[in-house]
Amino acid sequence: MIKLIKDDRITITSGKNFKLKNFDTDFSLDFVSKESAGVIMQEHIQRIAALQERLYASDNHAILMIFQARDAAGKDSTIKHVMSGINPSGCQVVSFKVPTSTEIEHDFLWRTAVQLPERGRIGIFNRSYYEEVLVTKVHPEIILNQRLPSVLTEKDLDKKFWEHRYESIRDHEKHLSRNGFVILKFFLNVSKKEQKKRFLERIDQPDKNWKFSYGDIKERQYWDQYEDAFEQMIEETAEEHAPWFVIPSDKKWFAQLAVARILLETLESLDLKFPELGDEEKAVLEKAKMELESEKD
């Protein structure tokens, strides 16, 4: 099995000299069809489910999966397929939309911090605090609504301001890593051509109309600005303890398989085991067994 965590066509552990243009949106390793990948995908889902039970029982790690992408890149469908075998009690998905008035009253990391998964669980962020160096960079007027004392006009959003935001994110993830969080960050890399195709499908197919927003079309005008923002995001925040995985996403089936494999490889690397009972606990079990077996039906 190809180790995607070690594959530099996908895994970024250092953002030095990172250029998004060097990453193909359409490649699929050695898989030639959706069908050939489907069988492996089902095997991965079953193995993830078994390991998730060990993760929950061992209760000393938490998995945090962060998904960032352009509109229509497939975040929702990827999460749905990869986590289809997971016990819901050991998993939580949080989708972050436009900040509420309460969230704006706090620092930009607060609303995600209160949604972090507990140890033993897998937490999934559909968008995250990274929006604060993505959409806010393309639309800096959003920052003015946050009422930051150091930002009175857009001119205050200088290089130093963004450097401080990246620094805050790096420090936050370092803190989480030190406290048992395993951080997996996925950028679903879709081409402009494929995004257009998916938008047209949402318009032409009645059962997909609900997914379409005209605002998504407006955001296509800022394609190059978002490209720069995504590139700098990865360049500034890719670390060994918090890698970015640039997932080719023009083929949804491959994106789903790649994410599933990375999660599986991560769980396997933790060497998860069910807790072992001590002598006193085993004695209690034996006593309970004897009492149950001695009961009259």
Structure description:
This protein has 297 residues and is of the alpha/beta class. It has a single domain, classed as P-loop containing nucleotide triphosphate hydrolases (Rossmann fold), CATH 3.40.50. The protein is built from twelve helices and six strands. The protein has a six-stranded mixed β-sheet with strand order 1-6-5-2-4-3, with helices on both faces. Helix 1 packs parallel to helix 11 (252-269) and helix 2 (75-82) packs across helix 11. The protein starts with 10 loop residues before the first strand and ends with a helix. The mean pLDDT is 94. InterPro entries: P-loop_NTPase, Polyphosphate_phosphotransfera, PPK2-rel_1, PPK2-related. One of its GO terms (molecular function) is polyphosphate kinase activity. Residues 43-271 form the Polyphosphate kinase-2-related domain. It comes from Solitalea canadensis (strain ATCC 29591 / DSM 3403 / JCM 21819 / LMG 8368 / NBRC 15130 / NCIMB 12057 / USAM 9D) (Flexibacter canadensis). This is Polyphosphate:nucleotide phosphotransferase, PPK2 family.
